[in-house]
Design a protein that fits this description.
The protein is α+β, with helices and mostly antiparallel strands. It has seven helices and seven strands, in the order H-H-H-E-H-E-H-E-H-E-E-H-E-E. It has a five-stranded mixed β-sheet. A two-stranded antiparallel sheet has the order 1-3. A hairpin with a 3-residue loop joins strand 6 (274-279) and strand 7 (283-292). Helix 3 (95-122) packs parallel to helix 7. The longest helix is centred in the first third of the chain and has 50 residues, at 38-87. The radius of gyration is 26 Å and the shape is flat. Residues 245-255 have low confidence and may be disordered.
Length: 298
Protein backbone atom coordinates (compact mmCIF):
# COMPACT_ATOMS: atom_id res chain seq x y z
CA UNK A 1 0.00 0.00 0.00
CA UNK A 2 2.84 2.40 0.87
CA UNK A 3 4.57 1.69 -2.45
CA UNK A 4 1.32 2.28 -4.35
CA UNK A 5 0.64 5.55 -2.51
CA UNK A 6 4.21 6.71 -3.12
CA UNK A 7 3.90 6.08 -6.87
CA UNK A 8 0.52 7.81 -6.97
CA UNK A 9 1.73 10.90 -5.10
CA UNK A 10 5.31 11.16 -6.31
CA UNK A 11 4.67 10.25 -9.96
CA UNK A 12 3.17 13.67 -10.91
CA UNK A 13 5.90 15.44 -8.94
CA UNK A 14 8.57 13.52 -10.84
CA UNK A 15 6.91 14.54 -14.13
CA UNK A 16 6.95 18.20 -13.03
CA UNK A 17 10.62 17.93 -12.10
CA UNK A 18 11.46 16.50 -15.53
CA UNK A 19 9.38 19.19 -17.18
CA UNK A 20 11.18 21.92 -15.24
CA UNK A 21 14.52 20.46 -16.31
CA UNK A 22 13.37 20.50 -19.93
CA UNK A 23 12.34 24.17 -19.69
CA UNK A 24 15.66 25.03 -18.02
CA UNK A 25 17.47 23.30 -20.92
CA UNK A 26 15.66 25.49 -23.44
CA UNK A 27 13.08 22.90 -24.54
CA UNK A 28 10.13 25.29 -24.37
CA UNK A 29 7.79 22.78 -26.02
CA UNK A 30 7.93 20.62 -22.89
CA UNK A 31 4.53 19.83 -21.36
CA UNK A 32 3.51 17.57 -18.48
CA UNK A 33 0.54 15.24 -18.32
CA UNK A 34 -2.44 16.56 -16.38
CA UNK A 35 -3.13 13.72 -13.95
CA UNK A 36 -3.50 12.95 -10.27
CA UNK A 37 -5.53 14.69 -7.60
CA UNK A 38 -7.06 18.15 -7.97
CA UNK A 39 -3.98 19.86 -6.54
CA UNK A 40 -1.64 18.06 -8.95
CA UNK A 41 -3.84 18.72 -12.00
CA UNK A 42 -4.02 22.42 -11.10
CA UNK A 43 -0.25 22.53 -10.71
CA UNK A 44 0.26 20.73 -14.03
CA UNK A 45 -2.06 23.12 -15.90
CA UNK A 46 -0.27 26.11 -14.36
CA UNK A 47 3.08 24.66 -15.42
CA UNK A 48 1.85 24.08 -18.99
CA UNK A 49 0.45 27.62 -19.17
CA UNK A 50 3.79 29.01 -18.00
CA UNK A 51 5.65 26.93 -20.59
CA UNK A 52 3.29 28.15 -23.35
CA UNK A 53 3.85 31.79 -22.35
CA UNK A 54 7.61 31.30 -22.35
CA UNK A 55 7.41 29.74 -25.81
CA UNK A 56 5.36 32.70 -27.07
CA UNK A 57 7.86 35.15 -25.61
CA UNK A 58 10.75 33.33 -27.24
CA UNK A 59 8.97 33.28 -30.60
CA UNK A 60 8.24 36.99 -30.24
CA UNK A 61 11.90 37.62 -29.46
CA UNK A 62 12.96 35.75 -32.61
CA UNK A 63 10.50 37.75 -34.73
CA UNK A 64 11.77 40.97 -33.15
CA UNK A 65 15.40 40.14 -33.93
CA UNK A 66 14.49 39.09 -37.48
CA UNK A 67 12.60 42.36 -38.04
CA UNK A 68 15.49 44.43 -36.69
CA UNK A 69 17.94 42.54 -38.92
CA UNK A 70 15.70 43.14 -41.94
CA UNK A 71 15.38 46.86 -41.21
CA UNK A 72 19.14 47.24 -40.80
CA UNK A 73 19.93 45.15 -43.88
CA UNK A 74 18.07 47.45 -46.30
CA UNK A 75 20.09 50.67 -45.81
CA UNK A 76 23.33 48.71 -45.41
CA UNK A 77 22.72 46.91 -48.71
CA UNK A 78 22.02 50.23 -50.44
CA UNK A 79 25.22 51.74 -49.06
CA UNK A 80 27.24 48.68 -50.11
CA UNK A 81 25.89 48.90 -53.66
CA UNK A 82 26.77 52.58 -53.88
CA UNK A 83 30.31 52.06 -52.57
CA UNK A 84 30.99 49.03 -54.81
CA UNK A 85 29.72 50.96 -57.84
CA UNK A 86 32.23 53.72 -57.08
CA UNK A 87 35.04 51.19 -56.50
CA UNK A 88 34.32 49.41 -59.80
CA UNK A 89 34.29 52.68 -61.70
CA UNK A 90 30.65 52.25 -62.70
CA UNK A 91 29.71 55.44 -60.91
CA UNK A 92 31.76 58.49 -60.02
CA UNK A 93 31.69 59.82 -56.51
CA UNK A 94 29.88 63.13 -56.86
CA UNK A 95 27.47 65.22 -54.84
CA UNK A 96 24.50 63.02 -55.75
CA UNK A 97 26.28 59.87 -54.60
CA UNK A 98 27.29 61.57 -51.35
CA UNK A 99 23.68 62.66 -50.84
CA UNK A 100 22.36 59.11 -51.35
CA UNK A 101 24.90 57.71 -48.89
CA UNK A 102 24.07 60.42 -46.40
CA UNK A 103 20.38 59.56 -46.61
CA UNK A 104 21.07 55.90 -45.87
CA UNK A 105 23.31 56.82 -42.92
CA UNK A 106 20.59 59.11 -41.56
CA UNK A 107 18.08 56.29 -41.96
CA UNK A 108 20.31 54.00 -39.90
CA UNK A 109 20.72 56.68 -37.22
CA UNK A 110 16.96 57.22 -37.10
CA UNK A 111 16.28 53.49 -36.85
CA UNK A 112 18.77 52.95 -34.01
CA UNK A 113 17.44 55.99 -32.14
CA UNK A 114 13.84 54.81 -32.54
CA UNK A 115 14.74 51.30 -31.39
CA UNK A 116 16.37 52.67 -28.27
CA UNK A 117 13.47 55.01 -27.64
CA UNK A 118 10.86 52.28 -28.06
CA UNK A 119 12.66 50.15 -25.47
CA UNK A 120 13.07 53.09 -23.07
CA UNK A 121 9.39 54.06 -23.25
CA UNK A 122 8.34 50.44 -22.69
CA UNK A 123 9.78 50.61 -19.18
CA UNK A 124 7.37 52.07 -16.61
CA UNK A 125 8.38 55.56 -15.55
CA UNK A 126 8.39 56.65 -11.94
CA UNK A 127 5.15 58.30 -10.84
CA UNK A 128 7.20 61.03 -9.16
CA UNK A 129 8.42 62.11 -12.62
CA UNK A 130 4.88 63.08 -13.66
CA UNK A 131 3.21 66.37 -12.86
CA UNK A 132 -0.17 67.91 -13.77
CA UNK A 133 0.01 69.14 -17.37
CA UNK A 134 -2.43 70.65 -19.88
CA UNK A 135 -2.58 68.18 -22.80
CA UNK A 136 -4.46 70.53 -25.14
CA UNK A 137 -1.78 73.18 -24.78
CA UNK A 138 0.83 70.57 -25.64
CA UNK A 139 -1.27 69.41 -28.60
CA UNK A 140 -1.72 72.99 -29.83
CA UNK A 141 2.03 73.48 -29.73
CA UNK A 142 2.58 70.29 -31.75
CA UNK A 143 -0.05 71.38 -34.29
CA UNK A 144 1.64 74.77 -34.69
CA UNK A 145 5.02 73.09 -35.20
CA UNK A 146 3.70 70.78 -37.91
CA UNK A 147 1.40 73.25 -39.72
CA UNK A 148 4.09 74.50 -42.18
CA UNK A 149 4.99 70.95 -43.21
CA UNK A 150 1.32 70.08 -43.81
CA UNK A 151 0.93 73.18 -45.95
CA UNK A 152 4.07 72.32 -47.90
CA UNK A 153 2.74 68.79 -48.55
CA UNK A 154 -0.60 70.15 -49.79
CA UNK A 155 -2.57 68.80 -46.82
CA UNK A 156 -5.26 70.61 -44.83
CA UNK A 157 -4.89 70.51 -41.05
CA UNK A 158 -8.19 71.00 -39.18
CA UNK A 159 -8.18 71.43 -35.40
CA UNK A 160 -10.86 73.99 -34.59
CA UNK A 161 -12.39 71.75 -31.92
CA UNK A 162 -9.06 71.50 -30.11
CA UNK A 163 -8.64 75.29 -30.12
CA UNK A 164 -12.18 75.78 -28.82
CA UNK A 165 -11.88 73.24 -26.00
CA UNK A 166 -8.47 74.59 -24.93
CA UNK A 167 -10.12 77.95 -24.10
CA UNK A 168 -12.64 76.38 -21.71
CA UNK A 169 -12.30 76.92 -17.99
CA UNK A 170 -11.22 74.80 -16.25
CA UNK A 171 -8.89 73.36 -18.90
CA UNK A 172 -8.43 69.55 -19.07
CA UNK A 173 -5.59 68.41 -16.84
CA UNK A 174 -3.70 65.10 -16.82
CA UNK A 175 -0.93 63.66 -14.69
CA UNK A 176 1.95 63.05 -17.05
CA UNK A 177 5.18 64.03 -18.73
CA UNK A 178 4.80 66.98 -21.08
CA UNK A 179 7.77 66.00 -23.27
CA UNK A 180 6.48 62.45 -23.77
CA UNK A 181 2.96 63.64 -24.59
CA UNK A 182 4.40 66.16 -27.04
CA UNK A 183 6.28 63.31 -28.69
CA UNK A 184 3.07 61.26 -28.97
CA UNK A 185 1.26 64.12 -30.69
CA UNK A 186 4.18 64.78 -33.04
CA UNK A 187 4.42 61.08 -33.96
CA UNK A 188 0.71 60.89 -34.77
CA UNK A 189 0.86 64.05 -36.85
CA UNK A 190 3.98 62.76 -38.62
CA UNK A 191 2.19 59.47 -39.35
CA UNK A 192 -0.71 61.25 -41.07
CA UNK A 193 1.65 63.60 -42.89
CA UNK A 194 3.69 60.72 -44.28
CA UNK A 195 0.83 58.44 -45.33
CA UNK A 196 -1.89 60.83 -46.56
CA UNK A 197 -2.11 61.60 -50.25
CA UNK A 198 -1.56 65.18 -51.42
CA UNK A 199 -4.76 67.24 -51.44
CA UNK A 200 -6.14 65.37 -48.44
CA UNK A 201 -6.76 66.54 -44.90
CA UNK A 202 -6.26 65.63 -41.28
CA UNK A 203 -8.94 66.37 -38.72
CA UNK A 204 -7.91 66.47 -35.05
CA UNK A 205 -10.69 66.59 -32.45
CA UNK A 206 -10.78 66.65 -28.64
CA UNK A 207 -13.74 65.58 -26.50
CA UNK A 208 -14.08 65.32 -22.70
CA UNK A 209 -16.07 62.23 -21.72
CA UNK A 210 -16.40 59.43 -19.19
CA UNK A 211 -14.05 56.50 -19.78
CA UNK A 212 -13.97 53.43 -17.52
CA UNK A 213 -16.08 55.26 -14.99
CA UNK A 214 -13.85 58.32 -14.69
CA UNK A 215 -13.39 61.63 -16.54
CA UNK A 216 -11.12 61.37 -19.57
CA UNK A 217 -10.01 63.28 -22.62
CA UNK A 218 -10.57 61.63 -25.98
CA UNK A 219 -8.36 62.75 -28.87
CA UNK A 220 -8.91 61.64 -32.46
CA UNK A 221 -6.81 61.84 -35.61
CA UNK A 222 -8.85 61.27 -38.80
CA UNK A 223 -7.10 61.49 -42.15
CA UNK A 224 -8.17 60.92 -45.72
CA UNK A 225 -7.20 58.21 -48.20
CA UNK A 226 -5.37 55.96 -48.56
CA UNK A 227 -6.70 53.70 -45.83
CA UNK A 228 -5.39 50.56 -44.16
CA UNK A 229 -6.90 47.09 -44.78
CA UNK A 230 -8.94 45.94 -41.83
CA UNK A 231 -6.76 42.86 -41.33
CA UNK A 232 -3.65 45.04 -40.87
CA UNK A 233 -5.12 47.57 -38.43
CA UNK A 234 -4.53 45.48 -35.24
CA UNK A 235 -0.80 45.24 -36.12
CA UNK A 236 -0.15 48.95 -36.60
CA UNK A 237 1.17 49.37 -33.04
CA UNK A 238 3.66 46.51 -33.34
CA UNK A 239 7.33 47.45 -33.49
CA UNK A 240 8.75 47.72 -37.01
CA UNK A 241 5.39 47.03 -38.67
CA UNK A 242 4.30 49.18 -41.60
CA UNK A 243 1.23 48.73 -43.79
CA UNK A 244 3.27 49.36 -46.92
CA UNK A 245 0.79 47.81 -49.33
CA UNK A 246 -1.88 50.45 -48.73
CA UNK A 247 -0.31 53.44 -46.97
CA UNK A 248 2.51 54.41 -49.28
CA UNK A 249 5.03 57.03 -48.17
CA UNK A 250 4.21 60.30 -49.90
CA UNK A 251 6.49 62.72 -48.08
CA UNK A 252 9.86 62.64 -46.39
CA UNK A 253 13.11 61.40 -47.79
CA UNK A 254 13.88 58.99 -45.00
CA UNK A 255 10.50 57.38 -44.50
CA UNK A 256 9.44 55.88 -41.20
CA UNK A 257 11.14 53.30 -39.05
CA UNK A 258 7.89 51.54 -38.16
CA UNK A 259 8.35 52.44 -34.49
CA UNK A 260 6.40 55.70 -34.17
CA UNK A 261 3.05 54.14 -33.26
CA UNK A 262 4.70 51.57 -30.98
CA UNK A 263 6.35 54.42 -29.06
CA UNK A 264 2.99 56.20 -28.85
CA UNK A 265 1.33 53.12 -27.40
CA UNK A 266 4.02 52.68 -24.74
CA UNK A 267 3.78 56.32 -23.64
CA UNK A 268 -0.02 56.41 -23.60
CA UNK A 269 -0.23 53.19 -21.59
CA UNK A 270 2.37 54.53 -19.15
CA UNK A 271 0.02 57.50 -18.60
CA UNK A 272 -2.86 55.17 -17.75
CA UNK A 273 -4.51 55.73 -21.12
CA UNK A 274 -5.36 53.75 -24.20
CA UNK A 275 -4.74 54.15 -27.94
CA UNK A 276 -6.28 52.24 -30.82
CA UNK A 277 -6.65 52.42 -34.60
CA UNK A 278 -9.68 51.97 -36.83
CA UNK A 279 -10.95 52.96 -40.26
CA UNK A 280 -11.68 56.66 -40.59
CA UNK A 281 -14.97 57.93 -42.04
CA UNK A 282 -12.80 60.32 -44.08
CA UNK A 283 -11.37 57.35 -45.99
CA UNK A 284 -8.03 57.01 -44.23
CA UNK A 285 -7.00 55.97 -40.73
CA UNK A 286 -8.47 56.98 -37.38
CA UNK A 287 -6.27 57.01 -34.29
CA UNK A 288 -8.15 57.41 -31.00
CA UNK A 289 -6.54 57.83 -27.61
CA UNK A 290 -7.92 58.33 -24.14
CA UNK A 291 -6.13 60.05 -21.26
CA UNK A 292 -7.54 59.99 -17.71
CA UNK A 293 -8.20 63.49 -16.40
CA UNK A 294 -7.41 65.04 -13.04
CA UNK A 295 -9.77 67.33 -11.17
CA UNK A 296 -8.99 70.91 -12.13
CA UNK A 297 -10.78 73.39 -9.84
CA UNK A 298 -9.04 76.40 -11.40
Amino acid sequence: LSAWLARRWLGPLAALVEGARGIAAGQLGTRVAVQGDAEFTHLARTFNDMAAQLADMEASRHRWLADVAHELRTPLAAMRAEIEAVQDGVRHFDDKTALRLHRQVMRLIQLVADLRESLDTAAPASSSARVPVHPLSILSEALANMAPRFAQAGLTLEHGGVDLLSTHTPAPLVLGDSQQLHQVFLNLLENSLRYTSAGGRLQVTATPLSWLGRPALQLRWDDTAPGVPEAEIPRLFERLYRAEASRQRTTGDLGGSGLGLAICRNIVQAHGGRIEASASPLGGLRITLWLPLLENPA
